[in-house]
């Protein structure tokens, strides 16, 4: 019914003016929903449809279906704002845009990229190659020797806070503007820069060492058989081994050295990002006639892959920056946390307040004398409004959070590699995760075999084994009694009338089909101490069952062959032309491999044609996804239902079928197939058409179900993250069916949730129709392939992202590393929310580096993702604690720490303002020298910094109630509202402290300093106690240590304090009175607020 509903509402028939327009669009509406009895055309068949659709805007709201004014509805583009003009544009960020554009232009001029071209590479004749190619090395370092210091300084001084204090410090070299000692300004700034430069130098040296290690690895070596296995886990994330084939004409050379004496060359396409395709030719000119062989992805070994079995001799085509792995890796960048950016905005607000206060002071002064100099002096006097210690405290806090994360015994092996963004873990809204090795262990286990009338599970596998043993024992006895007969026994049965097969024979046929239809190769390790020469490799191998392992292009394939071995039919040998199976009785059956049709994402199936050498029977076996096989097999009434049942169990299903061929049928097919493969135009389509001629009325044998083992704790972790308000996207290079199955079994998509599988689209019109169909779905997960995603982003980027962001979960399959990184960047751009990417392979590095926060898992796919990430963990389930405990606490602690440090600067600046206004607006400092340095360090630093130990809830409570994490994404812990509250507190306390000291002081001015400064220190210590939510013993130590340091220093600071006065009772009661008045009202307000409007976490802790 849904297919018959028009996508756009038609105007009433009474509107005559619209009749012509409606007739013009008849083709579109008929495609959207044909009338009863009409012959329904193909979805994307009409040629003129795309032309109309290109001009039709997508509808993004239900209003389009309800509005009756027009057939076409204008789409409000997502977040498109009116462009500002003139001076307004320049002030509101235009200057920054112009500077950035100029810098980018200069960089492009200096680092102009060389145009990528196709190339011809001669064997053994390097002098024939006229082109120059990049050095065969990779570089992941951010800086060079010459750009390190300028680069680090630029990263630091792009923050307003650091740039401001650089200007303030430099101003102290001007005598007329000098306020205090130079060290009071340059020491804190120098400390911040020294720490930053040291940290960056260590990180850069580690990158240099990693690059040196990778660049020192060399490739050597194709096996004598003409094939080898490689591991591509660092390129596409798939841990299975892939079979690669050599150029056939080079395999006939007598010796390896003859490769350099032949006159041959390789022509290859220009370097590109796609890791799944390659086009080239191999030409040998010294033969008659010249030999031309086409090269494809099966003949290539990309840089970053590992030769897992056999040895390889190859021709280097792409080097350095032109290799697929480097082209798919983005350049590393420096990451700044959202908290740092927010604090940067607050410091700008403080600077405006500083300027305003200074202007007010000069105005009240009456602009007498050199007023501009007085203005600058006031700017310097009130410069403590923006505290340089803010950067010091926050950087030290980040280091403390990293230390706590690595010391957490609940997440052992966790490493913090980027110490500047731990607070980002507490602000995440989107989590983008890889599948293979991240959510799953990539270990397949055979779970179910269904024959239509009978189903076998893990508990009944022994019955299958008994059927296989019985079948082969009968076959063996028949063969033994009829050894002289040249007519195959099975052939004679073909002319007999069809009878219902027994369960035993059906099980036997199914197991044999599974054992033959695959791309698995048994691999035997060499004996210990054996020679490594290629000619002795066969002799020195151990062919026992214990020494055999299976390798294939998919772990599903290996699981199926391992299962056939467990039930008695063992694959013992395979090469390019044959394979051998061992029966339960020990007999070895040999099958000749006539043709192999590999699996592709388009066909969703694979097949083989084999000849049984003992009977000369030719059989075409095929297996694939149910969506592809349902139209190929003979009619049945159980396949669709059972596939659905297995999918709901989280199993990956494959339909297995066969078709017997006569010799004449096969010879006809082979001639047509070879002719199609030699075609120069539309080769893939012609080959597919020939193969499809065989795929008709095939006999359905069985349905298999394989389970991909999930990582430990994946389901509860995903559930916890969802409850925490985090939306999860799965980006994988795997097949659509596999990705969908894992999304359901891991509960990324709940069982009650609908799933919309985005149909393959290749044009704008197709994307338009499919997006409109998807728009009508509500609260459903989206599954889309990389190719369709590319088309949607090309034509409808805003609309697609708007729709996808509304989904509870998104699964993107067949994604290249570059696509993964682009999706992350688009999410950041369109939503403005913080993103986190997590993966474990080299193909995840770009995604990890593009995200606001990157997490790498040390797993089977190596350590490349772990080393490139900001945080490294050992298991996916550790993400939950890393985010909801450490991320949450890091953000809340840094928010409290940052605001308290700003309060510390605001309160002393308020006191300075009151002091100057009382003394005729004189630009004279209230506190000088060591008092200012001590105030920001030993007197208050330890208690303030101890806020990094504060926690509002216990870690186990945060894990139990992940909903507490949701509040953090709104940024309420640090906002302009909370900032204004602290400003009011600072103004109140600063005014009370200064006016109180001026009212209560006696005869000498030094008493004002003594009373006000002592009350200030006590107020700061009490305010820390007011802010703390959970006391730690180190907090108590910090309080008493700071108070002790201050009391001890009074005896040595005779320049600022009258020792005789501070030891009197008068001093004590005056200081106590001022301190109580400044703090008691705040304690009272805090108590009333917690009673009347308690925060959410307090309800849990109580």
TrEMBL record:
Residue ranges constituting the P-type ATPase C-terminal domain according to the UniProt record: 867-1094
Membrane association type: Multi-pass membrane protein
Catalytic activity: ATP + H2O + phospholipidSide 1 = ADP + phosphate + phospholipidSide 2
Transmembrane segments: 349-369, 375-394, 901-923, 929-949, 979-999, 1005-1026, 1033-1053, 1059-1083
Listed InterPro entries: ATPase_P-typ_cyto_dom_N, ATPase_P-typ_P_site, ATPase_P-typ_TM_dom_sf, ATPase_P-typ_transduc_dom_A_sf, HAD-like_sf, HAD_sf, P-type_ATPase_IV, P-type_ATPase_N
Enzyme Commission designation: 7.6.2.1
Pfam families for this protein: Hydrolase, PhoLip_ATPase_C, PhoLip_ATPase_N
GO cellular component: a single term: plasma membrane
Recorded GO MF terms: ATP binding; ATP hydrolysis activity; ATPase-coupled intramembrane lipid transporter activity; magnesium ion binding
Cofactor(s) needed: Mg(2+)
P-type ATPase N-terminal domain ranges (all copies): 129-186
Protein residues bound to Mg(2+): 434, 436, 840, 844
Protein family membership: Belongs to the cation transport ATPase (P-type) (TC 3.A.3) family. Type IV subfamily.
Protein name per the record: Phospholipid-transporting ATPase
């Amino acid at each position: 019914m849904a297919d018959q509903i028009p996508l756009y509402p038609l105007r009433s028939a009474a509107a005559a003016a619209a009749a012509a327009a409606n007739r013009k669009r008849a083709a579109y509406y008929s495609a959207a929903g044909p009338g009863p009895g009409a012959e329904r055309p193909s979805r994307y068949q009409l040629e003129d449809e795309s032309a109309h659709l290109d001009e039709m805007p997508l509808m993004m709201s239900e209003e389009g279906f309800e509005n009756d004014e027009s057939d076409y509805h204008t789409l409000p583009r997502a977040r498109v704002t009116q462009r500002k003009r003139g001076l307004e544009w320049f002030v509101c960020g235009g200057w920054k845009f112009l500077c950035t554009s100029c810098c980018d232009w200069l960089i492009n001029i200096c680092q102009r990229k060389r145009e990528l071209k196709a190339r011809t590479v001669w064997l053994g004749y390097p002098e024939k190659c006229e082109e120059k190619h990049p050095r065969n090395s990779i570089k992941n370092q951010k800086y060079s020797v010459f750009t390190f210091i300028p680069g680090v300084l630029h990263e630091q001084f792009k923050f307003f806070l650091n740039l401001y204090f650089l200007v303030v410090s430099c101003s102290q070299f001007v005598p007329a503007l000098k306020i205090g000692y130079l060290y009071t300004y340059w020491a804190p700034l120098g400390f911040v820069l020294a720490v930053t430069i040291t940290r960056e130098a260590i990180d850069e040296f580690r990158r240099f060492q990693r690059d040196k290690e990778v660049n020192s690895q060399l490739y050597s070596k194709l096996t004598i058989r003409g094939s080898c296995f490689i591991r591509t886990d660092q390129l596409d994330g798939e841990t299975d081994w892939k079979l690669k084939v050599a150029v056939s004409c080079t395999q006939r050379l007598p010796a390896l050295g003859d490769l350099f004496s032949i006159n041959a060359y390789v022509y290859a396409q220009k370097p590109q990002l796609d890791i799944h395709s390659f086009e080239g030719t191999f030409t040998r000119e010294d033969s008659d006639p010249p030999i031309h062989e086409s090269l494809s992805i099966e003949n290539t070994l990309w840089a970053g892959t590992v030769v897992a079995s056999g040895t390889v001799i190859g021709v280097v085509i792409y080097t350095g920056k032109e290799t697929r792995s480097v082209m798919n890796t983005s350049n590393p960048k420096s990451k700044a946390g959202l908290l740092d950016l927010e604090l940067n905005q607050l410091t700008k607000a403080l600077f405006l307040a500083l300027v305003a206060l200074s202007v007010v002071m000069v105005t009240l002064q009456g602009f007498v004398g050199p007023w501009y100099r007085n203005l600058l002096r006031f700017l310097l006097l009130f410069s403590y409004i923006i505290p340089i210690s803010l950067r010091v405290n926050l950087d030290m806090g980040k280091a403390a959070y990293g230390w706590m994360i690595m010391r957490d015994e609940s997440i052992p092996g966790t490493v913090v590699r980027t110490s500047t963004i731990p607070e980002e873990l507490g602000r995440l809204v989107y989590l983008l995760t890889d599948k293979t090795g991240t959510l799953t262990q990539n270990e397949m286990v055979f779970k179910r075999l269904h024959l239509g009338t009978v189903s076998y599970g893990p508990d009944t596998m022994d019955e299958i084994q008994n059927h296989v043993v019985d079948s082969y024992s009968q076959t063996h006895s028949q063969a033994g009694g009829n050894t002289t007969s040249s007519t195959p026994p099975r052939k004679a049965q073909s002319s007999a009338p069809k009878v219902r097969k027994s369960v035993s024979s059906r099980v036997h046929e199914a197991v044999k089909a599974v054992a033959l239809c695959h791309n698995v190769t048994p691999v035997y390790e060499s004996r210990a101490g054996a020679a490594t020469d290629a000619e002795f490799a066969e002799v020195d191998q151990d062919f026992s069952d214990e020494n055999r392992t299976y390798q294939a292009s998919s772990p599903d394939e290996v699981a199926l062959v391992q299962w056939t071995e467990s039930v008695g039919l063992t694959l013992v040998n395979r090469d390019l032309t044959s394979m051998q199976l061992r029966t339960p009785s020990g007999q070895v059956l040999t099958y000749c491999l006539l043709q192999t049709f590999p699996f592709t994402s388009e066909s969703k199936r694979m097949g083989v044609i084999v000849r049984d050498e003992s009977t000369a029977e030719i059989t075409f076996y095929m297996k694939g996804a149910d969506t592809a096989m349902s139209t190929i097999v003979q009619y049945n009434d159980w396949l669709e239902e059972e596939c659905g049942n297995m999918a709901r169990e989280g199993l990956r299903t494959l339909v297995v079928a066969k078709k017997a061929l006569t010799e004449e049928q096969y010879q006809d097919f082979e001639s047509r197939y070879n002719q199609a493969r030699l075609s120069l135009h539309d080769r893939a389509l012609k080959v597919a058409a020939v193969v499809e001629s065989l795929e008709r009325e095939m006999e359905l044998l069985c349905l298999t179900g394989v389970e991909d083992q999930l990582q430990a704790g994946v389901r509860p972790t995903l559930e916890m993250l969802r409850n925490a308000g985090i939306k999860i996207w799965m980006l994988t290079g795997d097949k659509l069916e596999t990705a969908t199955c894992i999304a359901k079994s891991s509960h990324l998509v709940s069982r009650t949730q609908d799933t919309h599988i985005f149909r393959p689209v290749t044009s704008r019109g197709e994307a338009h129709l499919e997006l409109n169909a998807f728009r009508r779905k509500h609260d459903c997960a989206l599954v889309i392939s990389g190719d369709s995603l590319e088309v949607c982003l090309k034509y409808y980027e805003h609309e697609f992202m708007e729709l996808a962001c509304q989904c509870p979960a998104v699964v993107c399959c067949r994604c290249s590393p570059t696509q993964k990184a682009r999706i992350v960047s688009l999410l950041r751009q369109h939503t403005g929310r913080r993103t986190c990417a997590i993966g474990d392979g080299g193909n995840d590095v770009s995604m990890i580096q593009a995200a606001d926060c990157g997490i790498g898992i040390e797993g089977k796919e190596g350590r490349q993702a772990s080393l490139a990430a900001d945080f490294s963990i050992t298991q996916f389930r550790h993400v939950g604690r890393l985010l909801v405990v450490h991320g949450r606490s890091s953000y809340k602690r840094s928010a409290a720490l940052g605001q308290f440090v700003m309060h510390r600067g605001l309160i002393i600046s308020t006191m300075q303002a009151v002091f100057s206004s009382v003394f005729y607006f004189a630009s004279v400092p209230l506190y000088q020298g060591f008092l200012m340095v001590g105030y920001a360090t030993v007197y208050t630093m330890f208690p303030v910094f101890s806020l990094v130990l504060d926690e509002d809830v216990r870690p186990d409570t945060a894990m139990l109630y992940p909903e507490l994490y949701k509040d953090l994404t709104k940024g309420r812990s640090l906002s302009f509202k909370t900032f204004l509250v602290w400003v009011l507190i600072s103004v109140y306390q600063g005014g009370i402290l200064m006016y109180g000291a001026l009212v209560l002081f006696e005869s000498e001015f030094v008493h004002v300093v003594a009373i006000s400064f002592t009350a200030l220190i006590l107020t700061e210590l009490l305010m820390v106690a007011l802010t703390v939510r959970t006391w730690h013993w180190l907090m108590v130590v910090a309080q008493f240590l700071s108070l002790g340091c201050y009391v001890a220093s009074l005896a040595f600071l005779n320049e600022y304090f009258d020792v005789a006065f501070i030891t009197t009772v008068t001093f004590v009661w005056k200081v106590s009175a001022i301190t109580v008045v400044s703090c008691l009202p705040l304690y009272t307000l805090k108590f009333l607020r917690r009673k009347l409007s308690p925060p959410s976490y307090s309800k849990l802790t109580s």
